[in-house]
Amino acid sequence: MRLGKYLTLFTCLAISITTIPALATVKLYTIDCGRVYVKDFGDFSNTGFFDGKPVEAAAPCFLIEHPKGRLLWDAGVGKNETIAGLKLVINPVTPELRKIGLTPKDIDFLAFSHLHIDHIGQANIFTDSTWIMNPDEWSNMKDNLGEKSLVSYYPKAQKKLIHRDFDVFDDGSVKILLLPGHTSSHQALMVKLENSGYVLLAGDTYHQRESRTEKLVPRFNVDRADTLASMDRVEGLVKLKKAKLIIQHDIRDFKSLPKFREYMD
Ligand SMILES: [Zn+2]
Questions:
Q1: Is 11 part of any domain?
Q2: What are the distances in angstroms from CA 164 to CA 127, 175, 179?
Q3: Model confidence over 155-165: pLDDT tens digits?
Q4: Which residues belong to the signal peptide in this entry (predicted)?
Protein backbone atom coordinates (compact mmCIF):
# COMPACT_ATOMS: atom_id res chain seq x y z
CA MET A 1 0.00 0.00 0.00
CA ARG A 2 2.68 2.41 1.11
CA LEU A 3 4.92 1.42 -1.80
CA GLY A 4 1.99 1.99 -4.16
CA LYS A 5 1.55 5.50 -2.75
CA TYR A 6 5.22 6.28 -3.33
CA LEU A 7 5.03 4.87 -6.81
CA THR A 8 2.04 7.10 -7.56
CA LEU A 9 3.87 10.11 -6.14
CA PHE A 10 6.98 9.26 -8.17
CA THR A 11 4.91 8.86 -11.35
CA CYS A 12 3.20 12.21 -10.73
CA LEU A 13 6.56 13.90 -10.17
CA ALA A 14 8.02 12.30 -13.30
CA ILE A 15 5.04 13.45 -15.35
CA SER A 16 5.16 16.99 -13.97
CA ILE A 17 8.92 17.22 -14.63
CA THR A 18 8.61 16.00 -18.23
CA THR A 19 5.67 18.30 -18.95
CA ILE A 20 7.48 21.47 -17.79
CA PRO A 21 7.97 23.41 -21.04
CA ALA A 22 11.58 23.92 -22.10
CA LEU A 23 12.91 27.38 -21.27
CA ALA A 24 11.95 29.58 -24.18
CA THR A 25 15.08 31.03 -25.71
CA VAL A 26 15.78 34.34 -27.35
CA LYS A 27 16.99 34.16 -30.96
CA LEU A 28 18.98 36.80 -32.81
CA TYR A 29 18.83 36.81 -36.61
CA THR A 30 20.99 39.06 -38.81
CA ILE A 31 19.23 40.04 -42.03
CA ASP A 32 20.98 41.66 -44.98
CA CYS A 33 19.00 44.87 -45.57
CA GLY A 34 21.37 46.52 -48.03
CA ARG A 35 24.75 48.10 -48.59
CA VAL A 36 26.25 51.56 -48.48
CA TYR A 37 29.26 52.18 -50.73
CA VAL A 38 31.25 55.22 -49.69
CA LYS A 39 33.88 56.43 -52.15
CA ASP A 40 35.70 58.51 -49.57
CA PHE A 41 35.11 57.52 -45.93
CA GLY A 42 36.97 60.62 -44.71
CA ASP A 43 34.02 62.19 -42.89
CA PHE A 44 33.81 59.17 -40.61
CA SER A 45 36.79 60.42 -38.60
CA ASN A 46 37.71 63.98 -37.67
CA THR A 47 41.40 63.03 -37.51
CA GLY A 48 41.68 62.29 -41.22
CA PHE A 49 42.16 58.58 -40.50
CA PHE A 50 39.81 57.51 -43.31
CA ASP A 51 40.58 60.32 -45.78
CA GLY A 52 40.44 59.04 -49.35
CA LYS A 53 39.60 55.48 -48.33
CA PRO A 54 36.63 53.71 -49.96
CA VAL A 55 34.40 51.55 -47.73
CA GLU A 56 31.68 49.00 -48.44
CA ALA A 57 29.40 49.15 -45.42
CA ALA A 58 26.75 46.62 -44.44
CA ALA A 59 23.27 47.89 -43.55
CA PRO A 60 21.72 44.99 -41.66
CA CYS A 61 18.40 44.60 -39.88
CA PHE A 62 18.34 42.41 -36.79
CA LEU A 63 15.37 40.30 -35.80
CA ILE A 64 15.06 39.35 -32.15
CA GLU A 65 12.59 36.60 -31.38
CA HIS A 66 11.53 36.59 -27.75
CA PRO A 67 8.79 34.48 -26.16
CA LYS A 68 6.82 37.71 -25.68
CA GLY A 69 7.21 39.02 -29.23
CA ARG A 70 9.43 39.95 -32.15
CA LEU A 71 11.55 43.07 -32.39
CA LEU A 72 13.17 44.38 -35.57
CA TRP A 73 16.22 46.50 -34.84
CA ASP A 74 16.97 48.93 -37.69
CA ALA A 75 15.32 48.93 -41.10
CA GLY A 76 18.21 49.05 -43.54
CA VAL A 77 18.39 50.83 -46.89
CA GLY A 78 15.11 51.90 -48.55
CA LYS A 79 16.00 52.24 -52.24
CA ASN A 80 18.79 52.19 -54.77
CA GLU A 81 20.16 55.71 -55.02
CA THR A 82 23.33 57.74 -54.97
CA ILE A 83 23.12 60.66 -52.60
CA ALA A 84 25.71 62.85 -50.83
CA GLY A 85 28.59 60.63 -51.94
CA LEU A 86 26.84 57.47 -50.76
CA LYS A 87 25.73 54.71 -53.11
CA LEU A 88 22.86 52.93 -51.39
CA VAL A 89 21.70 49.49 -52.47
CA ILE A 90 18.53 47.97 -51.05
CA ASN A 91 18.00 44.36 -50.13
CA PRO A 92 14.25 44.12 -49.40
CA VAL A 93 13.47 42.72 -45.95
CA THR A 94 10.04 41.24 -46.81
CA PRO A 95 11.37 38.34 -48.95
CA GLU A 96 14.00 37.71 -46.28
CA LEU A 97 11.35 37.47 -43.55
CA ARG A 98 9.36 35.12 -45.79
CA LYS A 99 12.28 32.66 -45.69
CA ILE A 100 11.41 31.98 -42.04
CA GLY A 101 7.66 32.09 -42.61
CA LEU A 102 7.10 35.67 -41.45
CA THR A 103 5.61 38.81 -42.93
CA PRO A 104 6.08 42.41 -41.73
CA LYS A 105 2.77 41.98 -39.84
CA ASP A 106 4.50 39.45 -37.58
CA ILE A 107 6.90 42.08 -36.26
CA ASP A 108 5.53 43.33 -32.94
CA PHE A 109 8.10 46.03 -32.25
CA LEU A 110 10.26 48.22 -34.46
CA ALA A 111 13.17 50.20 -33.03
CA PHE A 112 16.06 52.13 -34.56
CA SER A 113 19.58 52.85 -33.45
CA HIS A 114 18.96 56.32 -34.92
CA LEU A 115 17.10 58.07 -37.73
CA HIS A 116 19.65 58.10 -40.55
CA ILE A 117 18.61 56.85 -44.00
CA ASP A 118 20.64 53.64 -43.82
CA HIS A 119 18.79 52.58 -40.62
CA ILE A 120 15.19 53.55 -41.46
CA GLY A 121 14.98 52.76 -45.19
CA GLN A 122 12.26 50.12 -45.00
CA ALA A 123 10.49 51.33 -41.85
CA ASN A 124 7.24 52.31 -43.56
CA ILE A 125 6.27 48.71 -44.36
CA PHE A 126 5.91 47.93 -40.63
CA THR A 127 2.45 49.41 -40.28
CA ASP A 128 1.29 46.84 -37.72
CA SER A 129 4.28 47.16 -35.43
CA THR A 130 4.66 49.29 -32.33
CA TRP A 131 7.39 51.82 -33.08
CA ILE A 132 9.66 52.33 -30.09
CA MET A 133 10.92 55.88 -30.30
CA ASN A 134 12.82 58.41 -28.25
CA PRO A 135 10.94 61.68 -29.01
CA ASP A 136 14.21 63.60 -28.71
CA GLU A 137 15.64 61.60 -31.63
CA TRP A 138 12.44 62.19 -33.60
CA SER A 139 12.38 65.96 -33.02
CA ASN A 140 16.07 66.30 -33.93
CA MET A 141 15.82 64.19 -37.09
CA LYS A 142 17.35 65.87 -40.12
CA ASP A 143 15.66 65.78 -43.53
CA ASN A 144 18.50 66.68 -45.88
CA LEU A 145 18.65 63.15 -47.37
CA GLY A 146 14.91 62.45 -47.42
CA GLU A 147 14.76 60.97 -43.93
CA LYS A 148 11.22 62.15 -43.16
CA SER A 149 9.68 60.37 -46.15
CA LEU A 150 11.26 57.09 -45.00
CA VAL A 151 9.45 57.25 -41.66
CA SER A 152 6.29 59.01 -42.90
CA TYR A 153 4.14 56.28 -41.31
CA TYR A 154 5.36 57.14 -37.82
CA PRO A 155 2.64 59.71 -36.96
CA LYS A 156 0.01 57.01 -37.61
CA ALA A 157 1.94 54.14 -36.02
CA GLN A 158 1.33 52.57 -32.64
CA LYS A 159 4.03 54.04 -30.44
CA LYS A 160 5.99 53.31 -27.34
CA LEU A 161 7.83 56.47 -26.34
CA ILE A 162 11.04 56.10 -24.38
CA HIS A 163 13.36 58.69 -22.87
CA ARG A 164 16.29 56.64 -21.64
CA ASP A 165 17.40 52.98 -21.60
CA PHE A 166 14.47 50.64 -22.17
CA ASP A 167 13.96 46.99 -21.27
CA VAL A 168 11.85 45.85 -24.25
CA PHE A 169 10.37 42.65 -22.81
CA ASP A 170 10.77 43.61 -19.15
CA ASP A 171 13.05 40.70 -18.27
CA GLY A 172 16.50 42.16 -18.94
CA SER A 173 17.10 40.07 -22.08
CA VAL A 174 16.66 42.79 -24.72
CA LYS A 175 17.66 46.29 -23.72
CA ILE A 176 17.83 49.51 -25.71
CA LEU A 177 20.70 51.66 -24.44
CA LEU A 178 20.79 55.43 -24.84
CA LEU A 179 24.21 56.34 -26.27
CA PRO A 180 24.08 59.89 -27.59
CA GLY A 181 26.68 61.56 -29.77
CA HIS A 182 26.29 60.23 -33.31
CA THR A 183 22.79 61.71 -33.17
CA SER A 184 21.13 63.40 -30.20
CA SER A 185 19.53 60.18 -28.87
CA HIS A 186 21.45 57.45 -30.68
CA GLN A 187 20.93 53.97 -29.21
CA ALA A 188 22.43 50.49 -29.12
CA LEU A 189 20.79 47.15 -28.35
CA MET A 190 22.05 44.65 -25.80
CA VAL A 191 20.69 41.11 -26.21
CA LYS A 192 21.24 38.35 -23.66
CA LEU A 193 21.34 34.92 -25.30
CA GLU A 194 21.30 31.62 -23.48
CA ASN A 195 24.20 30.01 -25.35
CA SER A 196 26.05 32.96 -26.90
CA GLY A 197 25.93 35.29 -23.91
CA TYR A 198 25.58 39.05 -24.32
CA VAL A 199 25.62 40.56 -27.80
CA LEU A 200 25.81 44.32 -28.16
CA LEU A 201 24.55 45.72 -31.47
CA ALA A 202 26.40 49.00 -31.35
CA GLY A 203 24.40 51.00 -33.90
CA ASP A 204 26.74 53.70 -35.21
CA THR A 205 28.74 54.11 -32.00
CA TYR A 206 31.49 52.83 -34.28
CA HIS A 207 31.39 52.57 -38.08
CA GLN A 208 34.39 50.30 -38.64
CA ARG A 209 36.61 48.15 -36.44
CA GLU A 210 39.28 50.85 -36.79
CA SER A 211 36.81 53.43 -35.42
CA ARG A 212 36.87 51.40 -32.21
CA THR A 213 40.59 50.72 -31.94
CA GLU A 214 41.48 54.33 -32.82
CA LYS A 215 38.45 55.89 -31.00
CA LEU A 216 37.45 57.82 -34.11
CA VAL A 217 34.65 60.39 -34.01
CA PRO A 218 32.95 61.21 -37.33
CA ARG A 219 33.05 64.83 -38.46
CA PHE A 220 29.25 64.94 -38.68
CA ASN A 221 28.44 63.57 -35.21
CA VAL A 222 26.23 65.99 -33.29
CA ASP A 223 28.35 65.95 -30.14
CA ARG A 224 31.98 64.86 -29.79
CA ALA A 225 32.01 64.74 -25.97
CA ASP A 226 28.80 62.67 -25.87
CA THR A 227 30.25 60.34 -28.51
CA LEU A 228 33.37 59.67 -26.45
CA ALA A 229 31.31 59.17 -23.28
CA SER A 230 29.06 56.71 -25.14
CA MET A 231 32.11 54.81 -26.41
CA ASP A 232 33.35 54.57 -22.80
CA ARG A 233 29.99 53.21 -21.67
CA VAL A 234 29.98 50.63 -24.48
CA GLU A 235 33.48 49.46 -23.58
CA GLY A 236 32.51 49.27 -19.89
CA LEU A 237 29.53 47.08 -20.76
CA VAL A 238 31.57 44.87 -23.07
CA LYS A 239 34.11 44.31 -20.32
CA LEU A 240 31.60 43.75 -17.53
CA LYS A 241 29.20 41.50 -19.44
CA LYS A 242 31.86 39.89 -21.64
CA ALA A 243 29.66 41.00 -24.51
CA LYS A 244 30.30 40.34 -28.17
CA LEU A 245 30.30 43.78 -29.80
CA ILE A 246 28.88 44.00 -33.32
CA ILE A 247 29.79 47.04 -35.41
CA GLN A 248 26.74 47.05 -37.61
CA HIS A 249 28.30 48.73 -40.66
CA ASP A 250 31.54 46.76 -40.59
CA ILE A 251 31.29 44.19 -43.37
CA ARG A 252 33.76 41.96 -41.50
CA ASP A 253 31.53 41.92 -38.40
CA PHE A 254 28.45 41.39 -40.59
CA LYS A 255 30.06 38.41 -42.32
CA SER A 256 31.15 36.93 -38.98
CA LEU A 257 27.49 36.53 -37.92
CA PRO A 258 25.39 33.45 -38.72
CA LYS A 259 24.08 33.70 -42.26
CA PHE A 260 20.31 34.10 -42.34
CA ARG A 261 18.24 31.84 -41.78
CA GLU A 262 20.66 30.69 -39.15
CA TYR A 263 20.65 32.58 -35.87
CA MET A 264 22.40 33.06 -32.56
CA ASP A 265 20.67 31.86 -29.41
ZN1 LIG B 1 24.63 54.27 -40.29
A1: no
A2: 24, 11, 9
A3: 999 999 999 99
A4: 1-24
